[in-house]
Amino acid sequence: MPVSKDNAEYKIRNVRVDDAEILLEIERSVISEGEYFIVVAEELEKKPVQEEKERIQRRLDNDKETLIVAEVNGVVVGSIEFRSQTTKRLSHTGSVSMSISKNYRDMGIGKALLKALLDWAEENPLIEKVSLGVLSTNQRAISLYKQMGFLEEGRLMKEYKLSHGKYIDDVLMYKFVQ
Ligand SMILES: CC(C)(COP(=O)(O)OP(=O)(O)OC[C@H]1O[C@@H](n2cnc3c(N)ncnc32)[C@H](O)[C@@H]1OP(=O)(O)O)[C@@H](O)C(=O)NCCC(=O)NCCS
Question: Residues enclosing ligand 1, CB less than 6 A?
């Protein structure tokens, strides 16, 4: 089993439908931090577990999508997913999003999850381009994406407005995998 920088053993595996509850919990707590995603805490609606289970099942049923989780001591601490596009001319692309619980960051788990996703994409002849958007303030994520070979392809300038009148760009990044 791989060991993180802090000597915690972690395991990378495909998602299961019964991960729904913990994935919702992680999503809610990371969004509540208010730093990393577009949605803010007060906009969060309580998503029913059944809805999350259906979302997981859709990822499992779609050859062009994946959802991979990281576990420490048998508990899911983070996940990464790839969502594909249905339009024909975009069908070779898709986008990544990932989250690790606060206490498990900077241990190398995000890098392991992203590597697993890129390995999956490289093996998948249907996927040619992996894309993502990241807030320009998220230096940790941007540094990880660059380390793993992503390049910036542009920015949506001042795309997000913070409540205190500051703006954040949306940095668009990509990696070709075929
Ligand atoms: C972004 C995220 C997925 C990365 O996962 P992680 O497990 O924390 O990342 P890792 O430990 O594998 O790697 C992070 C790298 O960034 C580096 N890093 C950390 N903080 C940094 C900073 N402020 N500036 C530059 N680099 C930084 C680390 O040193 C590490 O690089 P190294 O392996 O060369 O030392 C995780 O931190 C997270 O979930 N954050 C909150 C949600 C989020 O930002 N999701 C992505 C939205 S686009």
Answer: 30, 36, 98-100, 105-111, 134, 138-141, 143-144, 147
Residue 163, in any domain of the structure: no
Note if the pTM is more than 0.90.
Answer: yes
Structural domains counted in the chain: 1
Q: Has residue 138 been placed in a domain?
A: no
Mean pLDDT in runs of 10 for the chain (178 residues)?
85 98 96 92 87 97 98 97 95 98 97 98 98 98 98 97 90 97
Q: Is 28 part of any domain?
A: yes
Q: Which long-range contacts (CB under 8 A, 24 or more apart) does 33-40 make?
A: 33/102, 35/135, 35/137, 35/138, 36/99, 36/135, 36/138, 36/141, 37/135, 38/135, 38/160
Give 177 Cα–ligand 1 centroid separation in angstroms: 22
